[in-house]
């Protein structure tokens, strides 16, 4: 089995400017009584668990363990915003997911800093969720940002559930994701639809794309088949 692990933000989809900031502000206000948002820190590629602790530390408040309520409220706030303003699916992503989901030796999963709640909020309005649902439980399949502060641990959490004969591929746009693939000896296909350039990403993977549009997704399928 080849497990293809997708990041969400700026890899699968792009959330319109301001939405992440606004929905996080609602969560920080409701759950922590704090007037702040996730963009007060450098948040790209970080897990929700780490973002929440760092934002609160920035205000001088120490948080030991983030309550589940924070992830839930953040997901709900994002859901309300994204229903009105759905995320944009990035070029070639629908075609890539459709093609990969037809192959019985491929398993699609998420590897994301988002919690399961906020992942739902982002994937449902742009109709990408069904590619990642478990057939029985209907839950999203993958590893999420509420289980650890360290994003690079997510790949270990995922791999632990499977045989070491299986293969794993990371698809990501962030520097944190790129570094994780090197650190954890896991092949990656990187895409420059986020903040990091093709040139920078090439330091971490032999497979780097500007985006998956204009049939470049077909090359991605080929790379995965031969990984
Ligand atoms: Mg990303």
List keywords for this structure.
227 residues; alpha/beta; Rossmann fold; 2 domains; six-stranded parallel beta sheet; two-stranded antiparallel sheet; 9 helices; 8 strands; 40% helix; 13% strand; globular; binds magnesium ion
Task: Walk me through what this model shows.
The chain is α/β, with parallel strands linked by helices and 227 residues long. The chain folds into 2 domains: 2-15 and 87-225, HAD superfamily/HAD-like (Rossmann fold, 3-Layer(aba) Sandwich); 19-84. It has 9 helices and 8 strands. It has helices spanning 19-32, 48-58, 68-84, 93-101, 116-123, 151-159, 175-183, 198-201, 216-225, and strands at residues 2-6, 13-14, 88-89, 106-111, 142-143, 167-172, 188-191, 208-209. The strands form 2 sheets. Strands 5-4-1-6-7-8 form a 6-stranded parallel sheet, with helices on both faces. The chain has a two-stranded antiparallel ribbon with strand order 2-3. Helix 8 links the parallel strand 7 (188-191) and strand 8 (208-209). Magnesium ion (MG) is lined by residues 7, 9-11, 173-174, 194.
């Amino acid at each position: 089995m080849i497990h293809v692990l997708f990041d969400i933000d700026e890899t699968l989809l792009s959330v319109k400017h301001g939405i992440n900031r606004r929905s996080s502000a609602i969560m920080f206000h409701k759950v922590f009584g704090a007037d702040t948002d996730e963009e007060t820190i450098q948040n790209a590629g970080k897990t929700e668990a780490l973002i929440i602790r760092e934002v609160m530390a920035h205000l001088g408040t120490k948080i030991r363990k983030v309550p589940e309520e924070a992830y839930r409220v953040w997901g709900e706030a994002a859901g309300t915003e994204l229903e009105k303003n759905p995320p944009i699916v990035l070029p070639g992503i629908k075609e890539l997911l459709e093609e990969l989901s037809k192959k019985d030796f491929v398993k699609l999963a998420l590897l994301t800093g988002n919690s399961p709640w906020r992942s739902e909020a982002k994937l449902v309005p742009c109709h990408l969720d069904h590619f990642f649902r478990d057939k029985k439980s209907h839950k999203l399949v993958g590893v999420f940002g509420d289980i650890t502060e360290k994003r690079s641990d997510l790949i270990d959490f995922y791999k632990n559930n499977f045989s070491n004969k299986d293969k794993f591929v990371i698809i990501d746009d962030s520097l944190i994701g790129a570094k994780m693939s090197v650190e954890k000896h896991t092949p990656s296909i990187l895409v420059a639809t986020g903040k990091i350039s093709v040139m920078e990403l090439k330091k971490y993977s032999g497979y780097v794309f500007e985006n998956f549009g204009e049939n470049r997704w077909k090359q991605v399928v080929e790379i995965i088949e031969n990984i």
